[in-house]
Structures are given as C-alpha cells and as structure tokens.
C-alpha cells in the first residue's frame, strides 16, 4: 500500500527531480541533486529596530558573534568542544581561540560524556561554560550527564548548587544528506527531564539573542542549532549584545483558519505552507515558532488554537514521543471545546533517519499542505 | 632458507621510527633517503625456478614492535611468498583506487552524506585480514570502505552502497559508514560505540565455542571515549578473545593526538591489557602482529591491544579539507617516505618477487575493475520506496508504521534474514 501523500511525494520527485539522470549535463544534474534534498526557502526576519548597528551574518556568524560577545563581557566564560580551536566543523567558533587564547577556547578529546561532565563541573564552580557537542546525534553518550547531573543538580542539593552557567550547543536537524547519525532531532528526549531548558532558533537574529539568553540564564540550557541554516540563513544581525526571551513563542504570521506550529527549519516550511494555503485555498493560517521546547509557551499556542480551532504541529523528529505529542495533549486539555478537527502531527516517520529516503522522511511543505487541506475538510 | 635482511635497523633506526607523529621534520627528511636506500638494497632471487625469473619467497625485517606487559612479541623477521605478496598488494591498491574513486564521486555529488576515506591506512585492514581465520570477526568505525572490501564484499557492493543504489551491500540504506558482510559487523557512525560491541561479539565466540576472535577497531580519537575503558575491564576480567586495534592516524577529526591525549602510547592504555605497537604502514608487520594476537587470544589469555601507527591522507571526512590542522608538507612527507602501498611495491620489486612490469599490469587490471564498478554504481537503480519502512522490527506487532499523518500509515515489511542469525 502506498499512501496518497507518499504518492504525492513520488509524483513530486519524478516530475521535478530525478527524471533523465545521466542524460542531463553535469551542471543540470547537480542542480537536480541539490534540489532533491531539504526543500525549504529561508524567510529572513525584518531588520531589528532600536538595537543599533547591524551586520549581514549567517547563522554561523551569529553564533560566533554571540560567543565573541560572551567572551568579551564575561571574564569567566570558556568555550570548548571537539575541534572548536580551529573553528569547529561548521566554523561557528572561527578565530575565537586566536582572539581569546588557548585557556578560554580549547579543543576537547572526542568524549561527549566527558565534555558535558566537565562543563557541569566548570559551571557549578562558577565558570560560564559553553560546551559544543559536534552533532546532536553525538549527544547520547552525554545523556546521563545532562539528564541525571545537569538537570537535577539544583533540585537535589536543595538549591545549594547548580550548573546554570552551562550551555550545551549542538548542530541539529536534517542537512540534506546526513543519513542516520548526522540528521537527528533529539529535542524531545531532553524535554522529558525537568531542570533543562531547550532552545532552537530559526535564524541568525534569533540565534544570537537566544544563545546569549541561554548563556546568561541561570539554568542549564541545550541550544540546538539547525545546521542546514548555518550558511543558508542570512540576516541583518545587531552587532551589540542583546537577549531574546526564553519560553516565549513567536507568532510569525497571523491568521484564523489553521494554527501551524514548528521550530527551527520547519518554521520556514510552515511559512511557505501558509502562503500556499492563502493562494490555493484562500485561507489565512497562523504560523507559530515555538522557539523554546522546554519550558514551552502554552499560552501563545492555546490562544491561537482557540481562535482557529484547527492545529498542525510539524517537526523532523519521529512521530511517537516527538514533542508534537506533548503539545497535542495540552491542546486537547486546554482547548477541547474550541477544536474543529483533531490536532494533526506532521513529522518524520517512526523509522531511523533514512539515508536515501530523506526527502520522503522530512515533513516538507507538501505533506504539511496536505494536512492543512485535510484539517480544513474534516 | 636464507634470510634477507632488507631493513636492517639498529638503534639509530629505532630512534627515528618513534611513533610517526613524534618525528621532527628534520628527522623525517633524513629518513627519506635512508628509506630509499634500504629498499634498493633488497637482494633476493632465491628459490628461483628455472622457468620463472622471480623469487617465490622473501624475508624482510619490520620496524621493532614495542611491547606492553608482554615478555615476547611477534617476530621482527617476516617471510612472505610471492603469491601472498601479490594478493596483499592487490587488496591495498584496490582500496586506494576505490577510495580515490569515492572521493571523486563525492566531489561530483553522486555520493552524498558523510564519506570517510581510508587512503593511507590500507596496510592495517589488509594486514590484519591476512591473519584472520574464517571464524574470526571484525567490527570497525565509520572509516569502513576498505574493511568492507577485504571482508569479502565485492567492489560494487561497496561503491553502490556509497552511491545509495540497490547493488550496495546494505542496498543503499546505510551509506558510507554503514556497510556489513559475513563476520563483518559493520561500520559504525558513532565514535567509539563499536568497541563494546566488539567485546560482546568476542564473548559470543568464546561462549559458543567457535574459537573465533573479534577485532574491535577504533581510532586515536575514540581511544578517549569512556566506554572503551569500560570494556577493556570487562574483556580482561572475563578473558574475552578480543583484539582491540587502535588505528592511530595521528588526528581525531581535527585534533592531533598530542592535543587530545594525555598518553599517546595507545598500546599501553589498556593498562592490564597487554599491548603491542605496530608499524601500521607495513602490511607485513601488521600481519605478523595480528597472527601473534590471534594465537595469543585463542590460547585463552584474554584480550590484547594493538596500536597501528598509520596516517590518513584525506581529511577526517570529505567536508574536511584536512589542511587546517596540519601542513601539506607533512602529508607529502608521509606519502613519499611511508606510504603503505608504494613502499610495499618497492619491496616486492626489490626482492624480485615480481617485476615492475608485472606490478604495472596488476595495477592496470585493478584500475579497469574499479572504473567498471564505479560506472555500475553510478547507473544502478535505487531501492523501492516501500523499503523506507522495511526491517525496522523483526516482528513489528503492528501492521503499519506510524508516520506522515494519522490517516496515512505504511505497511511494515521484513526482508529476509540478518546474515548473522
């Protein structure tokens, strides 16, 4: 059995993408190959007002700017992780060691459990620790340190000790060709551990403000960076220090027909879906970027749902136990009588992150749009 | 049999051939002419038959092994027959060609994802495999292409896996890091995660009485993962026939061993697990050490740890140019003075095991085979979309896999049996 949606995907793939492999010129072939993976259009923020001078930065540079700002303003701050000295695999920490020295920006051995444990130790002793885990897929050796040590330090010591000065950064999400271990979105694993804050930015402006907020926050934070946006996302980012609120969702597009909820890369897909719905279905969708996974902004979400009565939550992580499940459960508790259709989750499948099937696995605009149509005609 | 000492190293050589990364530049420069001179000194042609003008066997001396908690190590004097020498060379050269092809296909964007090349480290896989018996197993990390090939997967199986096509050894579902074959428990994408598995595989061999050993490979970077130490302990505690092999190529991703490890003597880092330092650029030394280790393990003495001093020419993966943390000169130097493939070829020719022309013909044959398989790997089909939900569970308990939306579910499928069941 092939589902209608999958058939849609297949059609899409055949018409636009893989037809005539081998007969095309190399340049054209390249274009098709590139187009085949991670289909989304980045929609930049409007320039910030009142935050002073700005500079064109991609997500990498915005992260770099936040770390730079931290190292300048906080003399206790240290930045460490695998290969951060030469800039890290994604070059987010480029030149930081040159500027701030080997005592403050340094490489760690390849041992995630050690990196996070070390970071917790630094933080509990009063140092601002910004640890990098090279890929979110590699964070699992450190799962115990994060869930059992970092999350519970404050609680179990009756607030005598905490590791709030710890921030763990990790490259997150699909990148177009990452296969099983360079593509995962493990946010919901950590959402289950009270005591951690989990933040995912959608672009450079948000990334700098949120990362600085995480670093300055008094609780341990995990900051997941959508790696496909590292270079694809470019915005005018304020040069000086600024923070953006944690636990606060952003309503990016206002509407009354369907509420579309996502975070990270998915936000850009949902914005495009809202445009498609407006154009093809003549309805106005409301797009919400959740921004913070834990603690998440129940109020903003529920206010929107009460207005629209129809909801779609989309994320790259698999369906079962994904964070959409939690949002869905809360919506049905809080907004039961307002709902016009069941809450829909459009997510990765309950499969490992596939190698050759990535375009089908991802909750792309076609799948989300299909869900919009279904929820409107429920 | 008359022994021919081609490599006659005295104390001076021992000093020069410290683990490669300890070599200062000038030492390495001085080493280069020595190396050439010594290779050329090769004298042989014994056992020459009347019809053939080549030697059937030659004996070489390896760099000294360094021992940790061992009274006696492998022999420094190794003998190789013409047939074995050519077979070893063919495998090493094939891996080199395949990796070059893989690098090119990656640059053409035909291989997507993460692609870690084995070029420079060929002697490790080929030498170890030559010492293994049919009942022995291997598990390695993400630098798996060469290993997959020597463990019996045809070239096409490796190359098509890289391009994600159906003739790939995992039918394109795994890609670069995830290739499997009989008694080859795969590449593994997570640094160090395969090492505990290797000890488990070795325990299973012991428990089932197969007399097999397991080779658990990891890099110098993974040597700092905590789980590696957990299983050193378990392996020694229960005398598990596991051969830990640390392929020390000098860099854990972009960090050199000195900057990552408090002790770079990886062969000693098992503490109570005996260890041997091996010149991982000399296929015969590797084979000798692996033979010794298989004997050691099967005699019931428990695990042993081999450190292979080797080098990778490419970056950590294709996205790493491999030049931001080391100099181009350093790479060139290794290529010229220690390359496992060309140095072995020189030995073969110098010992008159084969002529330069024979070697050239062999290389041409390999090149043609790889080119042919590359062509197939590029043009083969991908597996059907239904395999997205195939083989997630052996017995799913649910007919459908949840996904997409609540209305659209995919039928769960199982395809055949796992090779090791």
Automatic annotation (TrEMBL), chain A:
Superkingdom of origin: Eukaryota
General function of this protein: Together with BCKDHA forms the heterotetrameric E1 subunit of the mitochondrial branched-chain alpha-ketoacid dehydrogenase (BCKD) complex. The BCKD complex catalyzes the multi-step oxidative decarboxylation of alpha-ketoacids derived from the branched-chain amino-acids valine, leucine and isoleucine producing CO2 and acyl-CoA which is subsequently utilized to produce energy. The E1 subunit catalyzes the first step with the decarboxylation of the alpha-ketoacid forming an enzyme-product intermediate.
Protein name (database record): 2-oxoisovalerate dehydrogenase subunit beta, mitochondrial
Its EC number(s): 1.2.4.4
Location of this chain's protein in the cell: Mitochondrion matrix
Molecular-function annotations in GO: branched-chain 2-oxo acid dehydrogenase activity
Alphabetized PANTHER family for the sequence: 2-OXOISOVALERATE DEHYDROGENASE SUBUNIT BETA, MITOCHONDRIAL, 2-OXOISOVALERATE DEHYDROGENASE SUBUNIT BETA-RELATED
Gene: BCKDHB
Organism of provenance: Cryptotermes secundus
From TrEMBL, chain B:
Gene Ontology molecular functions: pyruvate dehydrogenase (acetyl-transferring) activity
Catalytic activity: N(6)-[(R)-lipoyl]-L-lysyl-[protein] + pyruvate + H(+) = N(6)-[(R)-S(8)-acetyldihydrolipoyl]-L-lysyl-[protein] + CO2
Swiss-Prot/TrEMBL keywords: Coiled coil, Oxidoreductase, Pyruvate, Thiamine pyrophosphate, Transit peptide
Domain Dehydrogenase E1 component residues, every copy: 91-383
Cofactor(s) the protein requires to work: thiamine diphosphate
InterPro entries assigned: DH_E1, PDH_E1_Alpha_Subunit, Pyrv_DH_E1_asu_subgrp-y, THDP-binding
Gene Ontology process terms (BP): pyruvate decarboxylation to acetyl-CoA
CDD domains: TPP_E1_PDC_ADC_BCADC (cd02000)
Coiled coil: 352-379
Enzyme Commission code: 1.2.4.1
Protein's job: The pyruvate dehydrogenase complex catalyzes the overall conversion of pyruvate to acetyl-CoA and CO(2).
PANTHER family: PYRUVATE DEHYDROGENASE E1 COMPONENT SUBUNIT ALPHA, PYRUVATE DEHYDROGENASE E1 COMPONENT, ALPHA SUBUNIT BACTERIAL AND ORGANELLAR
Name of the featured protein: Pyruvate dehydrogenase E1 component subunit alpha
Organism: Cryptotermes secundus
Taxonomic placement: Eukaryota, Metazoa, Ecdysozoa, Arthropoda, Hexapoda
């Amino acid at each position: 059995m092939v589902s209608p949606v999958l058939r849609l995907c297949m059609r899409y793939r055949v018409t636009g993408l893989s037809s005539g492999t081998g007969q095309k010129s190399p340049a054209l072939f390249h274009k098709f190959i590139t187009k085949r993976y991670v289909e989304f259009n980045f929609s930049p923020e409007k320039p910030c007002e009142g935050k002073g001078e700005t500079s064109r930065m991609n997500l990498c540079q915005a992260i770099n700017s936040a770390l730079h700002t931290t190292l300048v303003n906080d003399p206790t701050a240290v930045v460490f992780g695998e290969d951060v000295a030469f800039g890290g695999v994604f070059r987010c920490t480029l030149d930081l060691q040159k500027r701030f020295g080997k005592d403050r920006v340094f490489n760690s051995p390849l041992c995630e459990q050690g990196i996070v444990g070390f970071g917790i130790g630094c933080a509990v002793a009063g140092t601002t620790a910004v640890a990098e885990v090279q890929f979110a897929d590699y964070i699992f050796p450190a799962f115990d340190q994060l869930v059992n040590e970092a999350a519970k330090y404050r609680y179990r010591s009756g607030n005598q000790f905490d590791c709030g000065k710890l921030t763990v950064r990790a490259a997150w999400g699909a990148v177009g060709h990452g296969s099983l271990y360079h593509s995962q979105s493990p946010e919901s694993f950590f959402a289950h551990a009270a005591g951690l804050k989990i933040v995912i930015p959608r672009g450079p402006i948000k990334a700098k403000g949120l990362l600085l907020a995480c670093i300055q926050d008094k609780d341990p934070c995990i900051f997941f960076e959508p790696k496909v946006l590292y270079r694809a996302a470019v915005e005018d980012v304020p040069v000086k220090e600024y923070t953006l609120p944690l636990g606060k969702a952003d309503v990016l597009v206002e509407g009354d027909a369907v509420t579309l909820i996502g975070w990270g890369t998915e936000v850009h897909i949902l914005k495009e879906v809202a445009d498609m719905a407006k154009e093809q279905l003549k309805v106005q969708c409301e797009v919400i970027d959740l921004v913070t996974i834990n603690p998440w902004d129940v109020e903003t979400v529920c206010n929107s749902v009460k207005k629209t009565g129809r909801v779609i939550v989309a994320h790259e992580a698999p369906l079962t136990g994904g964070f959409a499940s939690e949002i869905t459960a809360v919506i049905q508790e809080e907004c039961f009588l307002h709902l016009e259709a069941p809450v829909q989750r459009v997510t990765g499948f309950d499969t490992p992150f596939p190698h050759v099937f990535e375009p089908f696995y991802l909750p792309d605009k076609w799948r989300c749009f299909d869900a919009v149509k279904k929820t409107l005609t429920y | 049999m008359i022994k021919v000492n081609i490599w006659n190293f005295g104390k001076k050589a021992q000093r020069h051939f410290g683990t490669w990364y300890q070599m200062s530049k000038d030492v390495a420069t001085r080493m280069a002419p020595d190396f050439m001179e010594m290779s050329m000194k090769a004298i042989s042609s014994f056992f020459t038959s009347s019809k053939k003008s080549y030697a059937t066997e030659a004996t070489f001396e390896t760099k000294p092994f360094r021992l940790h908690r061992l009274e006696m190590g492998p022999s420094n004097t190794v003998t190789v027959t013409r047939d074995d020498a050519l077979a070893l060379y063919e495998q090493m050269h094939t891996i080199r060609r395949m990796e070059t092809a893989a690098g090119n296909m990656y640059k053409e964007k035909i291989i997507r994802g993460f692609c870690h090349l084995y070029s420079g480290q060929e002697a490790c896989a080929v030498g170890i495999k030559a010492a293994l018996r049919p009942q022995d197993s291997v598990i390695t990390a993400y630098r798996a292409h060469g290993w997959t090939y020597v463990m019996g997967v045809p070239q096409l199986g490796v190359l098509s896996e890289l391009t994600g096509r159906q003739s790939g050894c995992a039918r394109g579902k795994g890609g670069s890091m995830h290739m499997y074959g009989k008694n080859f428990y795969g590449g593994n994408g997570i640094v160090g995660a395969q090492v505990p598995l290797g000890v488990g595989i070795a325990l299973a061999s012991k428990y089932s009485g197969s007399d097999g050993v397991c080779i658990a490979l990891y890099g110098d970077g993974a040597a700092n993962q905590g789980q590696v130490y957990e299983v050193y302990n378990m392996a020694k505690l229960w005398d598990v026939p596991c051969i830990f092999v640390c392929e020390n190529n000098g860099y854990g991703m972009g960090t050199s061993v000195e900057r990552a490890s408090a002790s770079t003597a990886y062969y000693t880092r098992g503490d109570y697990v005996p260890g041997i330092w091996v010149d991982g650029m000399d296929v015969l030394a590797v084979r000798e050490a692996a033979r010794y280790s298989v004997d050691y393990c099967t005699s019931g003495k428990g695990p042993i740890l081999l450190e292979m001093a080797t080098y990778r020419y490419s970056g950590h993966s294709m996205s790493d140019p491999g030049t931001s943390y080391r100099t181009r000169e350093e790479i060139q130097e290794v290529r010229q003075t220690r390359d496992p493939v060309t140095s072995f070829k020189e030995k073969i020719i110098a010992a008159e095991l084969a002529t330069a022309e024979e070697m050239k013909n062999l290389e041409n044959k390999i090149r043609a085979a790889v080119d042919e398989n590359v062509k197939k790997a590029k043009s083969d089909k991908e597996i059907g979309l239904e395999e997205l939900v195939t083989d997630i569970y052996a017995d799913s308990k649910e007919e459908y896999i949840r996904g997409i939306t609540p209305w659209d579910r995919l039928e769960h499928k199982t395809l055949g049996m796992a090779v090791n069941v």
